[in-house]
Amino acid sequence: MVKLSEGNGGKEMDSLISRFTKDFPRGNWLHYDNDAAILKTDIGFFGFTTDSFIVEPPFFPGGNIGDLAFCGTVNDLAVMGIKPSALSIALVIEEGFPDEKLEKISDSLAKHSKATGIPLVTGDTKVMQKGKLDNIIINTSAIGVTDKVLDTPPESGDLIILSGSLGDHAVAVLSKRFDFETSVTTDSKPLWEEMKSIKPLIKQAKDPTRGGLAATLNEIAIKNNLQVLIHESHIPVKQEVRSAINLLGIDMYSLACEGRIVCIASQEKADLVLEILRKFNPDASIIGEFTGQKIPEVVIQTAFGKRLLPKPSGNIVPRIC
After folding, report:
1. Are strands 63-64 and 59-60 parallel, antiparallel or unpaired?
2. Which of 18, 137, 185, 197 is most buried when burial is the number of CB atoms within 10 A of its CB?
3. What residues contact 1, with CB distance under 8 A and at least 6 apart?
């Protein structure tokens, strides 16, 4: 039995999801265990994804739960190579939640919708008794169509690129929760423009959200049955982020990002991918490669030698997305 808790993640959550969905019919859908489900149609590949957002506090440096709800869901399509066409939104609101806060969340959703051209087309609202819910929960779903899904298998020597610094979103949220000063703001942003610019050059991509870089890299290794080697010295992390996570005793590689891409490119194309991504974020970096060994694991090269970087398990970090 999986014991549910606020911070459940990694293997425990995977086990729960597998047991819950094992008898569900899949139909003709592909990639239902990836960032988005894919259906092959006469007009191309139809993508569909959904996510729910619970974050405490709902407002933090650089954003709020509305930013997360929009960006987190459209990015799950974007990293599959799909331009999001429309978004749904469902709100579950605690009785007495302040109108001015709800308006700010609505403004954030509208801002991203206008900036990206992705319309909010349908939704729902429910109110729960005070004390039965912690502020607000937002569920969003997104759909889109593409002529090509990013799912080319990697090969030995292919390189892994991270599109920006690690852990900014997590530290922004935790600074409000634990009341410490920082200039770090959330990295939350829609990723389609970045993905569109590199899509012809890359094989696969993921966004390192729940479970952070550790979960993402292990999912990539398992999916492709290949060993991943990461170089710790190449991973971009702001000094303020390092200081904060050392203070809080949190694993850097489990920190969720909400505006970062982990992508795979051949050695011939990786430098161009990096050059393009650095136009969006100068901290983009090539952080590792596929060794060619058919072992689904992640190895990290540190200053003290190599060690395994496992998928997070148990209570990863306090919930931040």
Report:
1. antiparallel
2. 137
3. none
Beta carbons of 55 and 66 less than 8 angstroms apart: no
If one counts every other C-beta atom within 10 angstroms of the C-beta of residue 46, the result is: 18
User: pLDDT tens digits, residue range 302-317?
Assistant: 999 999 999 987 655 5
Sequence ranges of the chain with CATH classification 3.90.650.10: 159-311
Asked whether residue 20 carries a pLDDT value surpassing 90, the answer given is no
Contacts of residue 163, defined as CB under 8 A and 6 or more positions apart, other chains included, come to: 191, 194, 260, 261, 262, 263, 277, 280, 281, 284
Measured between alpha carbons, how far is 261 from 11 in angstroms, rounded to an integer?
22
Tell me the pLDDT tens digit for each residue of 194-237.
999 999 999 999 999 989 999 999 999 999 999 999 999 999 99
* Check whether domain 8-146 has CATH 3.30.1330.10, yes or no: yes
Tokens of 2: 């999986």
Per the CB < 8 A criterion, the answer to whether 124 and 90 are in contact is: yes
**CATH architecture type of domain 159-311:** Alpha-Beta Complex (3.90)
Start-end of CATH 3.30.1330.10 domains in the chain: 8-146
